[in-house]
Amino acid sequence: MRCKRSYSCNDKKGKKGRLNLSYNGFYGFGHASKKLDLLNATQYATILNEAYVNAGQAPKFSNPQSLGAGTDWQDVIFNTGERSSHEVSVNGGNEKSTFYGSFGYYDQTGIVMSDISYYKRLNARLNSTHKVTDWLTLGQTFAYTNTKSQGINSNGEFGGPLSSAVNLDPTTPILNPDLSAIPAAARPYVIRDANGIPYGISSLVQNEMSNPLAFKYTQLGNNGWSNDFIGNVFAEVKIIKDLTFKSSINGKKAYWGSWNYTPLYYLNANYSNLGVNSLSRSTQEKFEWSLENTLTYQKRFGKHNFNLLAGNGYYEYNIGFGQSVTHSNLPISSWEDASFNFDVGRANQTVSAWDYINTHKVSYFGRVVYDYDNKYLFTGTIRRDGSSKFGANQHWGTFPAFSLGWNVNNESFWPENKIINTLKLRGGYGILGNDGIDDFQFASFYVSGANYPGFNNAGNEVVLPGYYPNTLANPDLKWETTSQLNFAADLKLFTNFNLTVDYYKKKTSDILRKIFIPGYVGVTNAPTANIGDMENEGVEVELGYKKNWSDWGISVNGNFAYLKNTVTKLEKGRDYIDGPGFQSMGSVSRIQVGESYGSFYGYNTLGIFQNQAQINSYVNANGQMILPNAKPGDFIWADTNGDGAITDADKVNLGNSIPKFTFGMTINLNYKNLDFMIFAQGQAGNKIFQGLRRLDLLNANYQTTILDRWTGEGTSNTTPRLTVNDTNHNYTWMSNYYLQKGDYLRIKLVQLGYTLPQSVTQNFGVSKLRFYVTGENLFTFTKYTGYDPEIAAGDSFGIDRAYYPQARTFIFGANITF
Asked: Coiled-coil region(s) at which residues (predicted)?
């Protein structure tokens, strides 16, 4: 079930009759489903020596063969992650009242350094419905959730254990008592293990890349927390027969914050804190509420069936504030002693507070549902929504929709047959509105923190504090709308088969998105704009089979979808909009008319120069060399526009980040009290930018695919030579070299369960007892060389910056009903 707002989900209710008590719980453990094939110490030293020698510099290592395998940093960061869940629920009621209550606890540790990667959740819920009179029904929902968590940097190449494990050189040991290479003033702050031995510090790969075990020490004790209180109360009044009025009020009060201690440390020459330690705490709270009223009229006469609804809603968000405090120079050396009770003096205290600016939305809506003799079906809806997230002239949007259906098999002319048992044809058209952006993006606010050159009264040049606009105002910002036309057919075939075929064409207009702007514009935040339009056209097919006989039962359901995505329009004055950048490459994708949203754009390669003669013969129409600085082993950059030079104008579409095909299959088997289920999913037709390696760190480690690099004529036509002086930009320009197919097929879930016979369970007061074992992410079939091909598209545009790997998990659980 998908819920529009968390506090409006009343999907679990009590049942009339006796009291029912249930317990659902499981315990599981998992580990990374894949490790990257990275160079070991000997391979790394050999490769790095080659890169320096090719640049005319001295090699880094005198004897690579003596280094052996070295340190596998992935083994250092990966561990077994555990997860457990326990939930107790009770429900019951009588003819007048029903209730449902539950209490649950969930605990999960990460598969990457679980000391600083975990999530804990405590939740409770109470729902009840009371029929006070024949014309009045009251109900409520109350829920509470508490969380505590800590996470590592994920999908980010700038720091964190995962990125460090990929990029750190394997020649650095985990522990290294020799601190002679460390500045004397920094040695007291080098992180040590429990025995006092210093953790190894790389002299080759630095900046945010650090020994993960030392980095862990800087994060211990840090956490984020939240407390959410959610409530809903409704009253349903039966005014007259067939006419019902319902009013509901919903509310959510959220508290959240963080606790962070920063010790003194030295991780490497560019990553240290040798000044003062600090302790920071933030606390924020928000309140949101809504009121919805509906009037429903339901009537059946003859073969006509009507259901009419009219309503309105008012929704208010972001009523709240936040505050933070930081104390520095605490007289402690461990996070375990961190406290705000120390008197650190006014100079070592920083306090800030802020208010949130509340926003609201008003809605008016109506719906008509009609069917005639269960043959001809019609549903029509209309919404009129006003949002404060847009400017004065753009608050309101109107969003109609309708659908038609025809149960052909209910017609008198439809013959009974064993081939097509039922046939339903349906179609529809509708428009949806989207205001899912940050608040007040149509306005520009002035914020403090700017420094401007100026002069004092004496005429001397000074720096003057001032204000600056945080972003560019856009008073014409308006609703994003999505219109969709679809036609579908639902069939039941040969008694046991079900088939659904659905064609759709969806157009999204006035797409809301932050746009990238150059730094000289003078604002710190990218503005939000209605950047253009795009179309999604596709077909979805679902096929199922179900049959039961004797003690056996089987059901098989498969789905397949094809999607074609095309940008059809951009705002005036734009040929394309750059997507997010990747390190020194700049933007690696574009939003361009006629192409898929977020297509990869860069240079195309025509292979590798095998010798100087090829370089000399790669000339323009005037006989001039197109790549005069290239050397054998370098990429041959394609002059796609034929102007005789390699420029930005030669960048072309290199592939889509959005999959063209998605598919899945679920198989359920039952034999007596045994049940078995397997679920597989996959996708195809998309590209992934494999960006796990830091380009600005020349000595960062490589995956073993680099062993197939060009080392002489005929050795490779796909992977260029290595050099730390890459004047041909082999590894620093965006090109098809960095793109890989994102196709995969994953065995997502396998479960085997057994339900004890009631003849056994009733002897100890249990109505149902089921045990099961589950395996998640057991196998993935793919040629992608990153951790996981199942990465997000959207505004990340298929860029893999070191996504948190999927865990291969085994779970043991039980369901008990008393």
From this structure: none
Q: What angle do CA 769, 773, 778 make, to 5 degrees?
A: 160
Question: Which residues does 691 contact at the CB level (< 8 Å), separation at least 6?
Answer: 157, 582, 583, 738, 799, 800, 801
Q: Which helix (H) or strand (E) holds 300?
A: strand 278-301
- Asked whether the beta carbons of 171 and 264 are under 8 A apart, the reply is no
Cα gap 426→742, rounded to integer Å: 34
Sequence ranges of the domains in the chain:
113-356, 373-436+481-491
Task: Indicate whether 231 pLDDT > 70.
Answer: yes
Average of per-residue pLDDT values in the chain: 93
Lateral strand order in the sheet of 576-578:
576-578, 589-592, 599-602, 652-655
Q: Both tokens of residue 577? A: 């909009």
The torsion region of residue 392 among left (phi > 0), alpha (psi -120 to 50) and beta comes to alpha
Q: For residues 244 and 235, what is the distance between their CA atoms, to the nearest angstrom?
A: 10
d(CA 666, CA 284): 43
β-sheet bridge partners, residue 396: 386
Residue 520: per-residue pLDDT? 67
Distance CA 328, CA 169 (A): 34
In whole angstroms, how far apart are CA 459 and each of 24, 453, 463, 464, 713? 76, 12, 12, 13, 68
Phi/psi for 79 (5° steps) reads: -145, 175
Q: What is the pTM of this model?
A: 0.90
Query: Could you give the maximum distance between any two Cα atoms of the chain, in Å?
Result: 101
In three-state secondary structure terms, 272 is strand
In the block, which residue shows the tokens 């796609």? 640
Position 169, amino acid: D
Backbone region of residue 69 per phi and psi (left: phi > 0; alpha: psi in -120 to 50; beta: other values): alpha
> Which has the closest alpha carbon to 753: 777, 774, 778, 776?
774
Predicted local confidence at residue 9, as pLDDT: 41
For residue 326, give the amino acid letter. T
* Structure tokens that stand for 109 in this block: 């540790």
Please identify which residue in the block is written with the tokens 């039922």: 422
The answer to whether the beta carbons of residues 266 and 272 sit under 8 Å apart is yes
